[in-house]
């Protein structure tokens, strides 16, 4: 159930790479308990937005607040400790570590017992439990994506950011991933989702923002944007 309190607040965010302005002063909020998605073409600024929230890229302007505290000047470890984690584009698991070792890496900021959260990840992703001893690099693409999401969950986030979780996956696997995203959200984790598969993303989203060349051009509920003719023509196409 969506709560009214804002957990993430972005104000006039700008991100530059040298002389290139990737994000050009965007503002949006994420409420606690929501699934919010950012959709747009390649180069729209979606991943740059997530990377700035996670502290991997320092904003060139604007502010990022999480649970009322400024985090745009914080390092990535501090941001994880505050309750924000990201499953990055391309998964970026550790191929030479086992599944379980990868999951434990996700909990690097914790010093408490991991058993309950490890069991929850294995409940969400039974295939990971079956392959807990297997090196991450030998998993299928879908299994590696599950591992990347599971690793992010091991930090016990309040906000889980997912960058292109469907990238390169077969349609049936994509469907499974989005069902799991809904389950994670129902278990109390707020989700900020970046996704090129606009159809799937809008179906699970409470609210959505469209990014085009670094600017937000449209916002609405997932259902509203699914029904928007301009969005259909630009982003939905033949997606299932």
List the helices and strands and how they pair.
Elements: E1 6-17, E2 20-31, E3 35-39, H1 46-53, E4 61-66, E5 69-70, H2 76-82, E6 84-87, H3 99-106, H4 115-124, H5 126-130, H6 141-153, E7 159-163, H7 171-186, E8 190-194, H8 198-204, E9 207-212, E10 215-221, H9 222-226, H10 229-236
Parallel strand pairs: 3-8, 3-9, 6-7, 7-8
Antiparallel strand pairs: 1-2, 1-4, 4-5, 9-10
Helix pairs in contact: 3-6
Supply database-style keywords.
4-stranded antiparallel β-sheet, 6-stranded mixed β-sheet, 10 helices, 240 residues, 10 strands, globular, alpha/beta
Molecular structure report:
A hairpin with a 2-residue loop joins β9 (207-212) and β10 (215-221). The chain has 240 residues and is an alpha/beta fold. 42% of the residues are buried. It contains ten helices and ten strands.
Roughly how many Å is the radius of gyration? 17 Å
| Number of beta-strand segments | 10
Structural class comes to: alpha/beta
Number of helices: 10
Order of helices and strands: EEEHEEHEHHHHEHEHEEHH
Instruction: Show unreliable segments.
Output: none
The major beta sheet can be summarized as: 6 strands, mixed
- The span between the termini is 26 Å
Strand order of the largest sheet: 6-7-8-3-9-10
Helix content: 25-40%
Strand content: 25-35%
Shape: globular
Mean pLDDT: 93
């Amino acid at each position: 159930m969506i709560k009214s309190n804002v957990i993430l607040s972005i104000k006039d965010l700008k991100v530059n790479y040298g002389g290139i302005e990737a994000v050009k002063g965007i503002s949006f909020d994420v409420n606690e308990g929501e699934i919010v998605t950012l959709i747009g073409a390649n180069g729209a600024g979606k991943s740059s937005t997530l990377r700035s929230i996670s502290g991997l890229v320092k904003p060139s302007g604007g502010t990022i607040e999480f649970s009322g505290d400024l985090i745009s000047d914080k390092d990535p470890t501090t941001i994880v400790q505050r309750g924000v984690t990201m499953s990055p584009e391309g998964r970026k698991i550790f191929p030479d570590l086992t599944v379980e070792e990868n999951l434990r890496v996700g909990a690097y900021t914790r010093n408490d017992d991991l058993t309950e959260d490890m069991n929850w990840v294995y409940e969400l992703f039974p295939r990971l439990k079956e392959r807990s001893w297997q090196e991450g690099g030998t998993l299928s693409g879908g299994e590696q994506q599950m591992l990347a999401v599971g690793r992010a969950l091991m930090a016990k986030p309040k906000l889980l950011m997912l960058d292109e979780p469907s990238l390169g996956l077969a349609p049936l696997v994509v469907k499974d991933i989005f069902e799991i995203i809904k389950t994670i959200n129902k278990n109390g984790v707020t989700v900020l989702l970046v996704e090129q598969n606009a159809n799937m993303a809008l179906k699970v989203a409470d609210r959505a923002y469209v990014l085009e060349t670094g600017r937000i051009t449209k916002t609405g509920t997932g259902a509203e944007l699914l029904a928007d003719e301009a969005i259909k023509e630009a982003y939905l196409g033949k997606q299932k």
